[in-house]
Amino acid sequence: MQNIQNEFPILTDCIYANTAASGLMYRSLTEWRKQHSVDFLVGASEARADGMQNYIPGARKALATFLGCKVENVALVPNFSLGLNLLLEGLDKRSKILLLENDYPSVNWPFEDRGFSIEYARINARLEENIWEKLESGNFSVLALSLVQWLNGIKIDLEFLKKVKEEYTDLIIIADGTQYCGTERFDFEDSAIDILGASAYKWLLSGYGNGFLLFKDRVQEYFSVKSIGFSAANANKEMRNSIRFAKHFEPGHLDTFNFGSLKFSLDFLNGIGIDNIAAQNKRLSNKAKETFTNLGLLNEDITERKDHSTIFNIKGHDGLYNHLSKEKVICAQRGDGIRLSFHFYNTENDIDKIAKILKKGI
Predict the structure, then answer these.
(1) Residue 32 falls within a domain, yes or no?
(2) In this structure, are 279 and 249 located in the same domain?
């Protein structure tokens, strides 16, 4: 991964442990974005038309390939939050919803503010058991959750979700993959998830202003989405009454700069190899978990689980956070602790260095 690290100049000046907040910009994407702006500067509407013909369909196809989804079931949205809110406008208000306590606000709030009947499962070492017990206790229409928790990095067992779907065949599973997509191989069609959404500025390294929703075919039977616009009909008045489900989430113009960036980054990640990325992330996760456990900085909700993401919330106060910042470790205060998150451009040596810094600050 050493040659890959050269793409990320910030890594020469600090230890970047904050991908859970924002993925890094990198040299080759920056060059592409510069060229895109120059093309628009000198080409104006012709450059935009060319981008609409290439970058937008290209991003949709790249997502379908990268995440294992039918291309016609990919919706391009500026971010996950906007996409989810559009979706929920089409959900029957009588639906009963199962959420997770303290899940990411952009997952829970859109349900809560629409007056659905809601219950919550606890996020702890027994997350899957908690969800199962709740499902057994009530007739739920929707299970909505983040695949990886933003506060502590707890990752849902995707095989468990398959067992859920086998037992509760009519349950719609909506997942936020913002803290997950880009960390390991994933096949949407093979998964139990009915709707997967994400913003792409974190682990997919695509910058801001681009995201997506993926749908299984059966989803349109459960949602009556009303959002519409000329772009949803591909600027063809004759198509007004034959817009496919996913296109209802694209009522207006899409930005070729942002979605071109998404396509570029998916190609970039494919060039590295998603299995190589996953293997490196697994090494980082194992190393960080062992290191922070030995330092007594992780609670049992993390140490008792078999599989974990690369996001860790360690015990720490303002003084420890300031100490890390002074030593040029970029991280974030979240919840009651300090969140450290690692991606494939990090190294196990980064974790060793952080451990030494922590020992001096504890």
Answers:
(1) no
(2) no
**How far is the C-alpha of 329 from the C-alpha of 11, rounded, in Å?**
10
Average pLDDT over residues 10-22: 97
3-class SS at 175? Answer: strand
Q: Are residues 230 and 313 in the same domain?
A: no
* pLDDT at residue 1, as a whole number: 60
In this structure, what DSSP letter does residue 337 have?
A: E
Strands (E), 154-295: 172-176, 195-199, 211-215
- How does pLDDT run across 39-50, given as a tens digit for each residue? 989 998 887 888
| pLDDT, tens digit (0-9, with 9 covering 90-100), for 174-227 | 999 999 999 999 999 999 999 999 999 999 999 999 999 999 999 999 999 999
The reply to whether 68 and 10 lie within a common domain is: no
Q: Are residues 278 and 189 in the same domain?
A: no
Spatial CA neighbour of 28 closest among 206, 203, 165, 249: 206
Same domain, residue pair 301 and 261: no
Q: Which of 315, 291, 289 is nearest to 303 (CA)?
A: 289
- CATH number of the domain bearing residue 197: 3.40.640.10
Same domain as 316, residue 234: no
Domain range enclosing 296: 2-26+274-361
Cα four-point dihedral sign 309, 193, 21, 66: positive
Measure Cα distances from 58 to 70, 234, 294, 303 in Å: 14, 15, 46, 41
Mean pLDDT of the chain: 96
Identify the CA nearest to 228 among candidates 237, 219, 217: 237
* 338 and 205 fall within a common domain: no
Supply angle C-alpha 16, 60, 161, rounded to 5: 70
Q: Is 241 exposed, middle or buried (0-12, 13-18, 19+ CB in 10 A)?
A: exposed
If one compares 286 and 234, the residue with the highest pLDDT of the two is 286
CA 4, 151, 323, 282 torsion-angle sign: negative
**Number of folded domains that form the chain:** 2
Residues 245-299 have pLDDT tens digits of 999 999 999 999 999 999 999 999 999 999 999 999 999 999 999 999 999 999 9
**Phi, then psi, of 103 in degrees rounded to 5:** -65, 170
Q: Tokens 């004759």, residue? A: 238
